[in-house]
Design goal:
- This protein is α/β, with parallel strands linked by helices and 331 residues long.
- The chain folds into two domains: 193 residues, Isopropylmalate Dehydrogenase (3-Layer(aba) Sandwich), CATH 3.40.718; 120 residues, Isopropylmalate Dehydrogenase.
- 36% of the residues lie in helices and 17% in strands.
- The protein has eleven helices and twelve strands.
- The chain has a twelve-stranded mixed beta sheet with strand order 3-4-2-1-5-12-11-6-7-10-8-9, sandwiched between helices.
Length: 331
């Protein structure tokens, strides 16, 4: 007896003036029936380089996918002009995300892969009150604690602090915040990646992890005591480690994910190792969400030049995570 196939994935359209419509078509062209998904958006915004078919429910995606891109239609107020976001479409972008969450939480869809949004366009056009996708999804899920993971075949890394000035990081990096990030990451590796006993490497904040207090005290006063306490609970934690020696091949083989202290400490290594195939994963949500690790790329929108690699990896990773949660396959 074979395990039942999980419900199809949803691919939300993102900013229609960006490269999202092109990526949706290219993703279907590459995957077809191998990984059925439904695009949630306005079919008028598609470039039209591949066939598409409007469906009424995500469950129809598997039947349609062999011959056309399945589209779960969501009407927008305006047309899409590549490279020029229309404020009239901002509310549609927001509503598509909320509709996707409703569908996945009802069980109609298996997980969500989100194409890039443009935060300024949403703020200017619809008063969007969130820093980005991640925070909005967390709010839609009831205000759960989430973390952003960047993942590829070579590295999984989580920044404890994200879009704040570097000068603000030491004050924001409290033991309470770091504990939450570690616990959410640990649980996510078990639930979404099928890793039964995750190994986490935790970076220090300062050069050489403070070098015994000579280059900063945060490792001694905040990070190390927390890690010792969590080790006492059975978590497999290494650190605080000097970040400049954490990301070479031999070091990466010793852990399943790295916890970095701030944005660039996390994103520089993964973008150096695997720029085109990195995936943004939100851990801690009650549903699966992934996203390509890039923006709307207005400068090349409409030209047919967008690299679909990260979108393909995001869809594939979402599919594996859905199966891991369902207990029908490991990631």
């Amino acid at each position: 007896m074979t395990d039942p196939a999980p419900a199809p994935l949803l691919l939300t359209c993102g900013e229609p003036a960006g490269i999202g419509p092109e990526l949706a078509e290219k993703a279907w062209d590459a995957l077809g029936a191998a990984l059925p998904f439904a695009l949630l958006g306005d079919p008028r915004h598609l470039p039209g380089r591949v066939p598409h078919a409007v469906i009424a429910h995500p469950s129809e995606a598997a039947e349609v996918a062999p011959r056309a891109l399945p589209v779960l239609a969501h009407e927008f107020a305006g047309d899409a002009q590549p490279g020029r976001p229309d404020p009239a479409n901002a509310q549609g972008v927001i509503d598509v995300i909320a509709r996707a969450v409703d569908l996945v939480q009802s069980g109609a869809a298996g997980g969500i892969c989100t194409l890039p949004i443009h935060k300024q366009a949403l703020q200017d056009g619809a008063g969007f009150a969130y820093p980005g996708h991640t925070e909005y999804l967390a709010a839609l899920a009831g205000g759960v604690e989430v973390v952003m993971m960047l993942a590829s075949d070579q590295l999984r890394v989580v920044p404890a602090t994200i879009h704040i000035a570097l000068s603000e990081v030491p004050a924001r990096l409290t033991p309470e915040l770091l504990e939450s990030v570690i616990r959410v990451t640990h649980a996510g590796l078990i639930r979404d990646f099928g890793i039964s006993d995750p190994r986490l490497a935790v970076a220090g904040l300062n050069p050489h992890a403070g070098e015994g207090g000579k280059m900063g005290m945060e490792e001694i006063t905040r990070i190390a005591p927390l890690l010792d306490r969590l080790r006492g609970e059975g978590l497999r934690l290494a650190g605080p480690l000097s970040a400049d020696t954490m990301f070479h091949a031999a070091a990466r083989a010793r852990y399943d994910a790295a916890i970095a202290m701030y944005h660039d400490q996390a994103l520089i290594p993964i973008k150096t190792l695997d720029f085109d195939r990195g995936v943004n994963v939100t851990l801690g949500l009650p549903f699966v969400r992934t996203s390509p690790d890039h923006g709307t790329a207005f400068d090349i929108a409409g030209r047919g030049e967008a690299n679909v690699s990260s979108t393909l990896e995001a869809l594939k990773m979402a599919g594996r995570m859905v199966r891991a949660r369902a207990g029908v396959g490991a990631n």
